[in-house]
Amino acid sequence: MKFETLAIHAGQEPDAATGAVTTPVYQTSTFQQDGIGKPRGYEYSRTGNPTRAALETALAALENGRHGLAFASGVAATTAVLSLLRPGDHVVAGDDVYGGTYRLFERVYRPLGVAFDYPPATDADAIAAALRPETRLVWIETPTNPLLRIADLQRIADATRARGVRLAVDNTFASPFLQRPLELGADIVVHSATKYLGGHSDLIGGAVIVNDDEIHRRIRFYQNAAGAVPGPWDCWLTLRGIKTLAVRMRAHERNARAVAEFLAAHPAVERAHYPGLPGHPQHELARRQMSGFGGMVSFELRGGFAAVERFVARVRLFILAESLGGVESLVCYPPRMTHAALPPSERRRRGIGDNLVRLSVGIEDPEDLLEDLRQALADA
């Protein structure tokens, strides 16, 4: 089946008991058993819930994977993947990652004895060179957050496979509609379901999708043992969001392309970052690896932080807020919001300057969004 069909039907057959077309919300903590050791398929909703099972089936189908696992947040999903590590292990991560991921790596797992290195995500040779005998995981975002760089997943997967190292890809920015890392050689795919999968800024969730049965067994054990699972209502909201993922992503990309082209040509903008721009350094790689360029745009304003303050105070449709991937357009200031966990020196080293602005471009009318940006940058 094609993607749009899977998004509506995978794991979401009409309810066997009632014929309900929409997956029911099984709002229960526990399930009656027919006898000791004789459950009817479910025992306790931390371990498994029918609404969550429907979501996990849908997640796997969209990424063309065998196993999907749902979590209470994207960070919970990331933590579940890191549960595969032990003290003395080494992780190679791309240099441009979400600030919350960096915080988890550096302030939670490094003190536990896990080592991390951060070569450029865009340099597959540097990532391969950073691998050590004790490397167990390579962690990549592509497009990256917040600079929208593109990592060559096939080349990185070739290097990790040759060394017996697992490759995990955070696919949140692209969504499975635009990119499917398992098909490019990744072992593990991670999502913040809060973002494009949910799509309406009304839930917190995460996802892990794998093909390997043993990786699935270990992460599923962790899921139950640690208990960071989504409730059935959040699972239902994610399922509802997934149904329209394809049509939303087309609209996000249409608008983001128009916004990026406008910003790239504006005299108040020093540099615009969007993989769909022909001048983007990995534009051709993005064309090969993705089926579209996504809905995220970042840019650097002339005039430093003072210009950023003026801009965010003047926008009307772009809402100053954390997160991304919802139907509404958001503006974010990474140095003090999503990437505040990085020390200033580390932000500068990674190219996150004090004049950087990140946009999550929504699905409003594109002319309205452009007019909002035009008036906010007037006289800048």
Task: Characterize the structure shown.
This protein is α/β, with parallel strands linked by helices. The protein folds into two domains: 3-243, Type I PLP-dependent aspartate aminotransferase-like (Major domain) (Aspartate Aminotransferase, domain 2, 3-Layer(aba) Sandwich), CATH 3.40.640; 247-377, Aspartate Aminotransferase, domain 1, CATH 3.90.1150.10. Helices cover 38% and strands 14% of the residues. It is built from 14 helices and twelve strands. The strands form two sheets. Strands 1-7-6-5-4-2-3 form a seven-stranded mixed β-sheet, sandwiched between helices. Strands 8-9-12-11-10 form a five-stranded mixed β-sheet. Helix 6 (153-163) links the parallel strand 4 (135-141) and strand 5. Helix 2 runs parallel beside helix 9 (232-243), helix 3 (74-82) packs across helix 4 (99-109) and helix 5 (124-130) packs parallel to helix 6. The longest helix has 20 residues, at 245-264. The protein is globular. The protein starts with a helix and ends with a helix. The model has no long low-confidence stretch (mean pLDDT 97).
